[in-house]
Amino acid sequence: MGAPAVLLAVALTTLLAPASGAPIRQQASRNKLLLVSFDGFRWNYDQDVDTPNLDAMALDGVKARYMTPAFITLTSPCHFTLVTASGAPIRQQASRNKLLLVSFDGFRWNYDQDVDTPNLDAMALDGVKARYMTPAFITLTSPCHFTLVTGKYVENHGVVHNMFYNTSSKLKWPYHTTLGIQKWWDNGSLPIWITAQRQGLKTGSFFYPGGNVTYQGEAVTLSRKEGILHNYKDEVEWRANIDTVMKWFTDEGLDLVTLYFGEPDSTGHRYGPESQERKEIVMQVDRTVGYLRDSIRKSGLESNLNLLIVSDHGMTTVNKMASDLVELHKVSNFSFKDIEFELLDYGPNGMLLPKEGMLEKVYEALKDAHPRLHVYKKEFFPKSLH
Ligand SMILES: [Zn+2]
């Protein structure tokens, strides 16, 4: 047998938003990758030596506690595993891992820093934890969740808002209605549920945005959609939902499940991200993570289920009484009479479609109207927002 484990200690910072795929045609924003291997670097070689540069990299990015090398642990076999990603033998079904992707809506990157979260902390110790994640633009629930399951930026997967809208008919449908509108989701991008099913796997979606319609005629194997007046914060229901998902894995033989919780987003919107109520719901999230990991153990799934906990965006306090509030109707030379269609007062961004011939007038009126108002024509959107 060869030398003990090869360690791949640290991932690059640019991998922190793993599901944000570069736009296909926008070459400039495609990320590059440098994979460096130090042969025979055992998992704990940085623990009896001062390694300030490796430590700094772990702080800026993420770091695995250890890596289990492929068998057999020799240099060429293990390095070829790294560049071929040939994992489990194709015909050996029994050793295939399952994946549970859990999303807690609106869990800002630092919500675990002013609340005791022993279960999330234990999970970070047993696995890896990113310090933060940069969401896709725009930072709304459905667009960002669809980025997570398609690997595409919002402008490429086409789910550009929580609300279905039509600029000609002026129709706007709320989030819950939009969840069931087939053409809003099935617009050419295949989410991971369908890709997995085409490879012979079985998948499930529990309340996850986009999991309730068919894609190119194909539905997710098992899916649940929340009711229209769903109470997002019922902890008893959360546990029942986890029990159902465990049965999906053990009794129904599913390989991939996405599980969505509408908190702490809901409470954050209602009481504010700095409120005591938000801290309490984060404690509930943490208890739920503990219950979930216990359930995984009791269901006998611990050795072949990967658990991934993500969120879609953060949140910030908006003071509607602030002296520097941006109020479009108070801007001189701006009039809603010049606007054909608008989506304002929903999330961190607004959309305006000027009437025919009014684009320049509207743009000139708004572009320097307020130091905190940033206005872009569609074709001149900053590259940093993809
Ligand atoms: Zn959200």
UniProtKB/TrEMBL annotation:
Which biological processes are named by the entry's GO terms?
Answer: lipid metabolic process
Keywords per UniProt = Cell membrane, Glycoprotein, Hydrolase, Lipid metabolism, Membrane, Metal-binding, Signal, Transmembrane, Transmembrane helix, Zinc
**Reactions catalysed according to its record:** 1-hexadecanoyl-sn-glycero-3-phosphocholine + H2O = 1-hexadecanoyl-sn-glycerol + phosphocholine + H(+); 1-O-octadecyl-2-acetyl-sn-glycero-3-phosphocholine + H2O = 1-O-octadecyl-2-acetyl-sn-glycerol + phosphocholine + H(+); a sphingomyelin + H2O = phosphocholine + an N-acylsphing-4-enine + H(+); a 1-O-alkyl-2-acetyl-sn-glycero-3-phosphocholine + H2O = a 1-O-alkyl-2-acetyl-sn-glycerol + phosphocholine + H(+)
Q: Which domain of life is it from?
A: Eukaryota
Can you quote a single GO CC term? plasma membrane
Q: What is its EC number?
A: 3.1.4.12
Q: Does the keyword Transmembrane apply?
A: yes
Cofactor(s) required for function per UniProt: Zn(2+)
Can you provide one Gene Ontology molecular function annotated for this UniProt record?
sphingomyelin phosphodiesterase activity
Give the signal peptide, or none: 1-21
InterPro entries with a match to the protein in the record: Alkaline_phosphatase_core_sf, Phosphodiest/P_Trfase
On whether rRNA processing is a keyword of this UniProt record, the answer is no
Record's Pfam families?
A: Phosphodiest (PF01663)
Q: How does it sit in the membrane?
A: Single-pass type I membrane protein
Compartments in which it is found: Cell membrane
Protein name as it appears in the record: Ectonucleotide pyrophosphatase/phosphodiesterase family member 7
